[in-house]
Amino acid sequence: GVLPEGRLGQLGRATEALLGSIDMSVGVAFRTPNAVFLDDRAASGWTVRLMLIVAIVPFALGILDLVARGRRRRLPFVPAVRALRTRLLVWLWAGVLLWVGALTGALPTGDALPLPPSSSFVLDANVAGLAVLALAFVVVWLVARRPLIPASRLTPEERLAGYTCALAWLGVVAVAVALTKPFALAFVLPSLYAWLWLPLRSRPWQRACIYVVGLVGPLGGMLLLGHELGLGPVEAALYTAGLATVGYVSLFSVLLTIAWLAAAAQLSALAFGRYGPYVRMPRLRLAVRERRQD
Q1: Which of 146, 109, 120 lies closest to 242 in space, CA to CA?
Q2: Distance CA 58, CA 61 (A)
Q3: Cα angle value 132/135/139 (rounded, 5°)
Q4: Residue 92 falls within a domain, yes or no?
Q5: Is residue 31 part of a domain?
């Protein structure tokens, strides 16, 4: 005979519960081991995490001492913090553009799963859509950098304040990564200890070399990902952006990346001699006018 509707509902719920329990048991049985494998050796995951976390302690202590000394010397931290804030907002705008690209079809959307390397958005990118997104970023960057254009010769105190704020923010990012995603510190540590030497080098080529060394972590990870998937550098960058828009890379990870990029941008300006403390627009116009008169 025909089963009643209520009985069919009970059977459906029982089947769903059974499948859910099977999925959970399989997930537990076949969970990836929390370890790092090096050839024929393996290191337990907690040991590697602890080692990476301990590695940021000297940097954090050094930055705390630098901030304390800067406060005693009354360094002009406020303009430096405002400059860092402006760069952070610019990179937040870049993060917003990622999701705009997903909504407009320039970048993928879907389930939070790894994307195949042969995805159409990688091999046959929407060049027009990506160009519009890049143009939107450049326009905002040009507007935002106006208060950051050096209107006068930078004093040693202003330069040191800029370095201190950027390195302190980098330390905050490192601590956040250590508390939430310790393995990701492998990409952050090179920038911590390389860029810590930037204030101590006066020659431009030395600062440029040190800055490039600090980029080894994220750029090396990107190139390694591209090598493993058979993608070029640009394609690997697009693939990584796609992982963010589908949700495989969490929103918190994207925010940590944006915070790191803000510090990297300020240190780049300092390393290449393009840094200027934040100046409000009326004061900027007055300073430029006085400079022209001189």
Answers
A1: 109
A2: 5
A3: 140
A4: yes
A5: no
What is the count of structural domains for the chain?
1
Strand runs labelled E in 9-50: 35-38, 41-44
Cα distance between the two ends of the chain? 100
Instruction: Report, in angstroms and rounded to the nearest whole number, the Rg of the chain calculated over CA atoms.
Output: 24
Residue 242 lies in a domain: yes
Consecutive sets of 10 residues in the chain, 294 residues long: mean pLDDT of each?
62 66 50 60 71 89 92 91 95 94 89 83 86 95 88 87 94 93 90 92 89 93 90 90 91 95 95 85 50 51
Q: Measured between alpha carbons, how far is 79 from 265 in angstroms, rounded to an integer?
A: 16
* Residue 237, domain extent: 58-293
Does 12 map to a domain? no
Q: What is the DSSP string of 134-202?
A: HHHHHHHHHHHTGGGS--SPPPHHHHHHHHHHHHHHHHHHHHHHHHH-GGGHHHHHHHHHHHTTGGG--
SS3 114: coil
